[in-house]
Amino acid sequence: MTSVAGVECREQEPWQGETLTVVRIALAGCGSVGSALLREIAARREAIADRHGVEIVLTRLLVRDLERKRDASFDPALLTNDVDDFLATDADVVVEAIGGLDPARRIAETVLGRGQRLVTANKLLLALHGSSLTALARRNATSLRYDAAVGGGVPILRVIDESLGAGGPARVRGILNGTANFVLTRLEGGATFDQALDEARAAGFAEADASRDLDGRDAADKIALVAWAAFGVAPESVAVRRSSLLPEPDRFVRLASRVGARVRHVAECSLVGGEVVAAVEPLFVSPESALARTRDEGNHVDVFAGWRAPLCASGPGAGGLPTATALLSDLVCTGTAPRRSTGARVATSDSREQTWAVEVRAEPAVLHRSVPNCALVHTNDTASESWTIVRGTTPSGIASLLAELDAAGASPIVARFDEALS
Ligand SMILES: NC(=O)c1ccc[n+]([C@@H]2O[C@H](COP(=O)([O-])OP(=O)(O)OC[C@H]3O[C@@H](n4cnc5c(N)ncnc54)[C@H](OP(=O)(O)O)[C@@H]3O)[C@@H](O)[C@H]2O)c1
Question: Which of 43, 106, 136, 155 has the smallest C-beta neighbourhood within 10 Å, fewest atoms?
Fold first, then answer.
């Protein structure tokens, strides 16, 4: 026995069960996530046997570049860069950690079509083809698991699927992109956009092209998967209203500070009048809120399930190790994948009236002209930027206002106020 901080812990006993179930895996991708998965499997071999009665054996490893040095150890004879060769391998589970649509979609359809289990971290693939892939899995009596696709190490899909009984939430919202959050919080600390992005790349959170992260497309894919879990709507049918942080995320940070708030790029889906609405947009939140306190690559999700307070899940939303841990959890999970109905309706527009902050690169008169009932307009010292608060306006009303200000050459930006602030 050992004692840690006064708590008695048992030394880990080796697996005492009768036999270990050997699970043969073919892994597609050995980048940040794939290599972390191989390291985790090697480092946790005994714990995996002990907890799950499973021994994981790698049978094939698909990469693009056979010569690249890998941050994991494995038998080099298992490497291939030929997708057909990879698919010809005998395996109980195929793990896809390549990303993108091609060849990920072909791999997924082939694997599920012949009744093999598939585990993937690929939110793009699931957001576009999730319901047809799950139908294929069901027809072939196998399972498709993708907990790693949303939240990295934050098991938000699992929370929605398994921790709310048979009831679903009325609303889910949160920070689902670690790169965007990293950039915003570095900008709050005084970094320039270029410095923040370079740091995110050096830390391994941002790819060379981080536009999918910063314009909200990545978070939109994820919130479509959350809406699928929460409300049963097919992910490809969810129209996610999306407002980019680009081209100048620092403008949102400055405007937030001018109105005493913090900005976070927040994804949200909810039931409004029985229909599903979803959005990814800059949200002004209280500096004391859990969203504002989510820094760097952290993710934070609030699940509103009709309780007095939301159920919250937070943690590292990006990075090889947290994502690989989520893949590993799916890998050793032998239960049937949750069923998702596709009965709910997706709303064509969001009718809720909200409060917004609008800023233009123009003098106050431009806002006075375009914003109905515009009372108070603030300007910076040089009167080159003006901003105001617009209340009681729907997202489509705000979109029309932005189009008008844009046409006037006023370079508008807009952020919504969290209801706790408005
Ligand atoms: N990184 C994260 O923090 C994170 C978090 C959540 C989810 N995810 C998801 O996890 C998946 C993998 O992400 P990652 O960050 O590990 O990506 P990555 O570092 O770019 O690695 C991708 C891997 O896939 C291989 N690959 C790419 N295209 C291929 C092709 N056509 N044929 C064969 N192999 C190919 C690459 O081979 P080479 O190495 O030879 O180029 C590389 O080993 C993606 O779906 C991503 O969205 C990542």
Answer: 43
